[in-house]
Amino acid sequence: MAMQINKALPLPAELKQEYPLPASLAKRKEERDREIRAVFTGESDKFVVVVGPCSADNETSVCEYVSRLAKVNEAVSEKLVLIPRIYTNKPRTTGQGYKGMLHQPEPDKEPDLLGGIIAIRKMHIRAAAESGLTAADEMLYPENRSYLDDLLSYEAIGARSAENQQHRLTASGIDIPVGMKNPTSGDLSVMLNSITAAQSAHNFIYRGYDVSTTGNELAHAILRGGVDKYGTSIPNYHYEDMIRLLEMYRKLDLKHPAVIVDTNHANSNKQFREQIRIVGEVLHNRQYNPELKTLVKGVMIESYLEEGCQKIGTQRVYGKSITDPCLGWEDTEKLIYHIAEHC
Asked: Are 317 and 343 spatial neighbours (Cβ–Cβ below 8 Å)?
């Protein structure tokens, strides 16, 4: 057979019992969830900034980054809600390459899924304990999120996953904001179909159980740009793109229309320093049009301790991305303060 069973993995409940979330952090997560929820329901006019490494590849550097972010959060908390990106699964276009800490807790070693699920849970707990900030992760594998579902305050569903039925149905049973990215084609109607599905009730199979969901009214759009048939990046963060999305939202019976702008990926053509300019344009458009100020709830920024990226190797630079290039900390800190001043 082409597939073989290597080993049984612990159930999420078993892993949570072995690595429990302290009561103090559970309470903090409830507070954070309420604060973030209020932004997406329109009760709060704070601006969300989902910011952090393209892929969380090292517990120590990620936790240092999040702790730095917490200090900035204290200074901007009247205007912004900072959500650290702690992305532990990395989608690969061809299936090759580093797939994130879930697969490889040590990036230069062989895959270890048992070690991976332990490593990502410990890292999320440590980051929250040291910073007071609960984080975002990507729902790359719907059934794996059960190992972290008591820790996360935001989830994103990627461009390659937004059309997948299991991702959409799983999102419908989550009680935190879930951002559905537009597919790599850039088709906004596909993204809105995903949001519609996520906001609806469903009955399906999940982790071997017959489950029912009530729908997630906090499911929303993430614009990340698209790629045409020639492989050319087509951004979708411009004013006319936002107006088009607003008009498309109006034709649908969806709760809490909202969008987060991903400032990297096809929007920046992976030119990571362009994120600074793109954030500026998004803020300008919100100021220019009050309807867009209501619609655009935040931005997503890829950032780490050191700017750029590097290949996996024995001489890796601490706090530098091993996947897509990121802004460095100094530029990130300045950018966050700029956002707070202009939103």
From this structure: no
Residues 203-252: pLDDT tens digits? 999 999 999 999 999 999 999 999 999 999 999 999 999 999 999 999 99
CA atoms within 13 Å, Cβ hemisphere of 317: 14
Three-class SS string for 95-127?
CCCCCCCCCCCCCCCCCCHHHHHHHHHHHHHHH
Paired with 180 in beta bridges are: 157, 221
The answer to whether 36 touches 73, Cβ cutoff 8 Å, is no
Task: Tell me if residue 174 falls in helix, strand or coil.
Answer: coil
Which positions ≥6 away from 247 have C-beta within 8 Å? none
Q: Is residue 265 left, alpha or beta, with left meaning phi > 0 and alpha meaning psi from -120 to 50?
A: left
CA torsion 338-138-30-259 (nearest 10°) is: 50
Neighbour count for residue 298 (Cβ, 10 Å): 30
Query: From CA 238, how far away is CA 227, in angstroms rounded?
Result: 16
Number of H helices, E strands in the chain: 10, 14
42-77 pLDDT tens trace:
999 999 999 999 999 999 999 999 999 999 999 999
- The encoded tokens of residue 40 equal 């997406």
C-alpha 332/C-alpha 328 separation (Å) is: 6
Contact 315, 329 (CB under 8 A): no
Degrees to nearest 5, angle at CA 173 with 171 and 178: 35
